Amino acid sequence: MDTASKDPFPWKEPTKPVARGAFIVVEGLDRAGKTTQVQKLCNNLYADGHNVKAIRFPDRTSPIGKMIDGYLQRKTEMDDHAIHLLFSANRWEKAAWIKEQISKGYTIVCDRYYYSGMVYSAAKHNPALSLEWARTPDVGLPRPDRVVFLNLDAEEAERRGGYGQEKYEKREMQERVRELFLGLMSKGEEESKDMMLFDAGDSAENVSTAIWAEISKVVGSVEAGSWRDLGSVGHWPEKR
Questions:
Q1: Residue 11 lies in a domain
Q2: What is the extent of the structural domain holding 59?
Q3: CB 3.0-4.6 Å disulfide test: which of 14, 26, 56, 176 passes with 123?
Q4: In what residue span(s) does the Thymidylate kinase-like domain sit (predicted)?
Q5: Are 40 and 204 contacting, i.e. CB atoms less than 8 angstroms apart?
Q6: How far from each other are the two terminal CA atoms of the chain, in whole angstroms?
């Protein structure tokens, strides 16, 4: 992805000065259409004159990512805390690269990020693994400018092709994941400010159009310098 010969979006000299690139994350249940919408958004951004790179988590190509892949493919078992920390470490492996590319003027479109990390772990109903505990290892990671949440009920996700191939693709798990995602949007912390909800039950084209209408404005504002600097994931306030 990082070599010119493999890069589907080679660098184009911007027609206007770019303060920095944007950091956009696409989240949702399994089979909600994340990969499709990441590709469509990248295509739209590039056609509109923005430099862009697509990434996804987990990154299964690194040594840590290969361990995660074995777990997701049901080839190995692991303690809930241990696998969660591996997922977080996998994101930290890419943190400096994300900052560097954004500073160069690339917009990063990311398929899953720490939001999935914490809600999927918390959805396991392990009393020793709360949402707050699951979020803590990711404090300090680059904070997205916006998070696109593809909202889809678990029953509809189950009807889509390829469902059930990986460890977490079970209806009860997906229902809990969706509940936790929607809870983040109403929690009042930074995630609720960053997340935008889109109906993933609509056609892929309609979803893409709706995402473009919102995210194109965000990217334009970020590149023009009228947005905040790239932030970091912060601590949640302590409960009282």
A1: no
A2: 24-228
A3: 176
A4: 26-211
A5: yes
A6: 46
